[in-house]
What we know:
4 helices
Amino acid sequence: MHGGSISAAVGAMVETAGDLLADARYWRARAMAEGSADYARLASQLATSSRQTERDSWHMAAVEAAARESVDDGDLWRTQRAFQRQLAAGDPPSPLSATVTASDDAGDPEPPADPNRAESADSARDGDPQTPPPKDPRA
């Protein structure tokens, strides 16, 4: 169960284990330099805490990975993954895209015209972008 993403809690535990190990190495060096049994004991305790924290983080990561795999057996997980990929690609999906099937959209009307489009409906139909828009009947 190696690889993949980890939660913020697991990441914080890994970081803490590294900090504890760095502290243990510092106090071990001080104990050696000064001949202090108290510093050596502190270094040993910190190293032990570091190992325990790292072990606990691996366990928590494995439990989280197993939980993610158990969710993988349903269509909801695949649908959510596809949705996230569409969002990441910059293509926001329609809210009804998951429920519409090929038989459902056979009789759908034309989509509404884009109000930001420069061409008029007549010029787009005729294929001539130079055709002026219709005159206002009130003029």
